[in-house]
């Protein structure tokens, strides 16, 4: 279902109340506000409480889906929440009941991060984000570097056969063959999610495959802001609105 941001949307009462629903939610720009650098984000007590409450209400049918690696998510999340399913690296990693499944880790992206840091230098306003299975080149601090960032990642993608994912003022390099739609399908195949109706909340272009996956499964896609509203069934304004929406499902 594709709606314009101005369209009035009637929300299924089961989705509103959380009955037989599963909640899958993006991290950056959805649970936490976008910051100038990836490591500057903070997970608030309100977020922790909202996720914990939804997990109890939905019988553990809740997952965080992110382009960040599982290790990055765990480092940012204060305190252990082993009951929360996590999909990291755009679906290449899946953490269920404390165990992480994913491909064999190599040092490719560590080497590329070093090369990118040398290429752009410290004063270019380009932030290099090394991930377990990816590399982000952020130009938020200096939008004039967009073309230079795109040129560099394009060369590396050709050299190593990688996929380029454009995000919110970032170009990301990652292996081909996985996206957040794959993450949604893997999560919904888990026993605890069986027979439930998925609700996905996200804000970025990387969330579009997830929207499409939940819609194909008869679920409900919620966009944060206007960036991806044309692909969703419902739109909310910001992180605070996301938390209120999660609270409604957990009520």
Describe the model:
The protein is an alpha/beta fold. The chain folds into two domains: 164 residues, 3-Layer(aba) Sandwich (Rossmann fold), CATH 3.40.50.1000; 67 residues, Alpha-Beta Plaits (2-Layer Sandwich). The chain is 33% helix and 22% strand. The strands form two sheets. The protein has an eight-stranded mixed sheet, sandwiched between helices. The chain has a four-stranded antiparallel sheet with strand order 6-7-9-8, covered by helices on one side. Strand 10, helix 7 and strand 11 form a beta-alpha-beta unit. Helix 2 runs parallel beside helix 8 and helix 6 runs parallel beside helix 7. The relative contact order is 0.19. The N terminus is likely disordered.
């Amino acid at each position: 279902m594709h709606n314009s941001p101005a369209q009035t949307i009637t929300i299924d009462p089961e989705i509103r109340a959380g009955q037989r629903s599963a909640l899958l939610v993006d991290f950056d720009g959805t649970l936490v506000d976008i910051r100038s650098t990836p490591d500057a984000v903070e997970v608030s007590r309100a977020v922790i409480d909202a996720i914990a409450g939804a997990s109890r209400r939905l019988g553990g049918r809740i997952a965080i889906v992110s382009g960040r690696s599982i290790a990055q998510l765990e480092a940012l999340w204060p305190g252990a929440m082993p009951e929360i399913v996590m999909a990291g690296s755009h679906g290449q990693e899946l953490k269920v009941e404390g165990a992480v499944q994913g491909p064999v880790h190599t040092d490719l992206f560590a080497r590329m991060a070093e090369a990118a840091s040398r290429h752009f230098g410290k004063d270019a306003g380009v932030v290099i984000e090394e991930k377990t299975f990816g590399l982000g080149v952020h130009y938020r601090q200096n939008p004039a570097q967009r073309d230079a960032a795109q040129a560099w990642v394009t060369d590396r993608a050709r050299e190593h056969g990688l996929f380029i994912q454009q995000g919110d003022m970032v170009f990301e390099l990652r292996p081909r063959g996985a996206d957040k739609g794959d993450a949604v399908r893997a999560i919904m195949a888990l026993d605890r999610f069986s027979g439930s109706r998925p609700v996905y909340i996200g804000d970025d272009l990387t969330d579009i495959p997830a929207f499409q996956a939940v819609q194909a499964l008869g679920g409900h896609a919620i966009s944060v802001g206007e960036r991806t509203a044309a692909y969703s069934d419902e739109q909310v304004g910001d992180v605070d609105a996301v938390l209120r929406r999660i609270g409604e499902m957990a009520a």
